[in-house]
Amino acid sequence: MRILNERDAKAIIYATALMGAGGGGSLAHGLYYLNTYAEKHEIAVKMISVDEMEDDTFAGVLAGMGSPVKFRESGTDFLVESVTAYEGLKEKAAFMNRRLTNVFPIEYGAGNSFVPMLTSMECDAPFVDVDPCGRAVPALNTTPFAINGLATAPCVMSNGKGDKVIAEPVDPYDAVGLENLCRNVCVAFDMVMGIAGWITSKEQMKKFLVPGAYTKALQVGHILLDAIEKNLDVSDEISKTVECRELWRGKLTKHELAVEKGFDFGRTYYEGIGEYVGRQFRIDYQNENLVAYEGDEALLTVPDLICTLNLDTGCPLTNAELEEGQNILVLAMPAPNAWYMSEDGWNCWAPFLETIGYKGEQVRY
């Protein structure tokens, strides 16, 4: 077991804001959750490895669901949403004769990686060093849970009032159906809600998910914080820790955004700067970055990671924080192996790529 302190939690928030690939909750909101909680409590998160889980126990996912823009506007500290959802899931697990004692995130992201830490501290439930995705994702059916045939239900949803809705579809493996159900509840909850589900064993984590994901995030985050504080080249420093490469450096000249059906849909346009002067780039996204282009040529597609940082501050940027005029560094990173265990690691993205008008082939890191 490792006890994560406030600096560690901040490092994870920064790292997962970067490796969330545009989504997973804004950096500002993740820091708001951390700072608000730290005003009244010591930050001390009990993080355990997958191997340290007791054999007869299970872990549940805790996450926020909705529009990143709406999360930013809501001002919630997310305690009510997360704790209510977790306690509801714990009750459901007991009915299933499963001892739910641990929590873990649904994805990388400044918000969604820290939400289970909040729940861990409030409910004395160890935080497991594992991530299903190793990136952020737009929907429940775009996760290694779904593509590798793990049950998605039951799940519990909650809003900031403590209202909760329990979803128990007839087919617990129907991730698309559950996504549609949850997304409609999310709209009813004004596109800001907590969700708990995916009651998972340590054996399933080892076989299908990404163990050690938060040890990695901790390392990346501390390097990122040090680089920002010492005014070092962030790209150079990050590349010493994780596999990555630059796609471009550019000025954000135009940002198109629409919030619909619980999602942020957007397109960002860039004019190259420095060695990229004279070149045109863009990113299409649905909460998360889906395709990066130079002109009309796709440079990278999901599930690999398209990550953005502010060149002037070194801070990672999610799509909820992009503003025209910013100077942006765009990095590519390979997705974890969990995405490449079957063809569905690519096929599950088809409906989202179709929505944004992409008809091309997968372009891997």
From TrEMBL:
Domain annotation S-Me-THD N-terminal: ranges: 8-167
KW tRNA-binding (keyword) present: no
Keyword terms, alphabetized: Membrane, Transmembrane, Transmembrane helix
Transmembrane segments: 12-34
Domain S-Me-THD-like C-terminal residue range list: 178-351
Pfam family membership, one: S-Me-THD_C
Designated name of the protein: DUF917 domain-containing protein
Organism of provenance: Emergencia timonensis
Organism phylogeny: Bacteria, Bacillati, Bacillota, Clostridia, Peptostreptococcales
